[in-house]
Amino acid sequence: MTIRVLLADDQALVRAGFRVLLETEDGFEVVGEAGDGEQAVALAAEHRPDVVVMDVRMPGTDGLAATRRITADPELAGVKVLVLTTFDVDEYVYEALRSGASGFLLKDTEPVELLRALQVVAAGEALLAPTVTRRLIAEFVGRPEHRRVNPSAVREVTDREREVLALVAGGLSNDEIAAHLVISTATARTHVSRIMTKIGARDRAQLVVLAYESGLVTPGGH
C-alpha cells in the first residue's frame, strides 16, 4: 500500500527535503505541499492524504489550529496528522495530541525514523517521540481544567479494560499488550476498540490523553 503524504511547513527547503526523502522510497507518495495551516486544511480536503506532516509554527493559521480543523472534520476522518517541529516544548506535545494529532516527532529525527513514523501513523497507531513520556503528558492532563471525559463513560470501563488502557498509555502495541496479559492479539485489539468507543477517542494517541484526563491512568502508576 502506498502512503499518501501531504507536507505542511512554511520553509520551502524543509518541504523539498522531505519530498526528496519520500519520493526516493518505495511506498510513499507526496500529494501536495502547504506553506501555512490554512493551505494545509484546504489541501487535506482536496487530496485526502493518509498522513499530513504538520509543522507547529507557521504564519497565520498555525499547525495546531490546522490539526484541530482537520481532525474535527468528519469527511476527513481517515486523515492522520503527524506533528513535526524543532521545538521540544512540553506544551506543544500536549496541545498537539489534544488537537487530534496521531504522532509527534522532532525535526532532528533520523530519516529512517520519519519513514517508520509515517507507516505507524498511517496504520492507525499512535507515535510519540522518545522524549515524550507519560509523565510529561500527565503533567498537563492532570490539571482539573483539562478534564473533559464524561464521568458516566469512565464508570463503564471495566477493570480489565483499565488494565489494557494503562498498557496503551505506556506505549505498548496490541501485540505487546497481548503478550503481557497472555491473551490473543485479537482480544487485545477488541479491548482497545471498546475503550475508545466508551470514552470517545478517535485514535490511540487521543486515547492516551483521555486516559490521563479521566483519571483512568495516573502518573507513575495505574
TrEMBL record:
Look up keyword Transcription and say if it applies. Answer: yes
SUPFAM superfamilies, per database record: C-terminal effector domain of the bipartite response regulators, CheY-like
- InterPro entries according to UniProt: CheY-like_superfamily, NreC/VraR/RcsB-like_REC, Sig_transdc_resp-reg_C-effctor, Sig_transdc_resp-reg_receiver, Tscrpt_reg_LuxR_C, WalR-like
Give the domain of life. Bacteria
Task: Identify the residues that the record assigns to the Response regulatory domain, covering every copy.
Answer: 4-122
Q: Where is the HTH luxR-type domain?
A: 150-215
| Record carries keyword Cell wall biogenesis/degradation | no
Q: Which SMART domains match?
A: HTH_LUXR, REC
* Database matches in Pfam families: GerE (PF00196), Response_reg (PF00072)
What is the protein's name according to its record? DNA-binding response regulator, NarL/FixJ family, contains REC and HTH domains
